[in-house]
Amino acid sequence: MGQIRTWLSTLICITALLMISSGCTLKATIKEITDTTSNVTETTSGRTWFTEDGMLHPEYKLTAFTALNQTNVEQDLARGQGEYLTSLGTLLGLSNDQQAAFHAKAQGAFVTLMTSNHDARLQQLRTLAR
Questions:
Q1: Of 27, 65, 71, 100, whose CB has the highest number of CB atoms within 10 Å?
Q2: Are residues 61 and 122 in the same domain?
Q3: Residue 31 burial class via C-beta count within 10 angstroms: exposed 0-12, middle 13-18, buried 19 and up
Q4: How far is residue 24 from each of residues 11, 21, 27, 94, measured CA to CA in Å?
Q5: Does 50 reside within a domain?
Q6: Structure pTM?
Q7: pLDDT tens digits for 105-124?
């Protein structure tokens, strides 16, 4: 989650610098960013990933998390522990008591998970969480 905050902070700083240097308005810049994001997610998924409030729909949280944190998730999967693997378990709806078993199963399935495409990998992770 820290990486998402860092990425978001970086995006905000870059946007602010662009606004200052180009003289554009904040409203126009934000609209351009959100319109572009909406267009991308709508064309790739057939519908928008975001609510009208700008929040990510719950059904896309797992996809977004694994896509944005792929390297860290893979490293934690290989080790069978770590904050990204714990966050992944939380997104899959696991309680703290279920995390250790999930970590062990995920580490055991590491090779299979890494050779799967993204959608198949998410489905396998959901199966491991059961």
A1: 65
A2: yes
A3: exposed
A4: 16, 8, 9, 45
A5: no
A6: 0.59
A7: 999 998 888 887 888 888 88
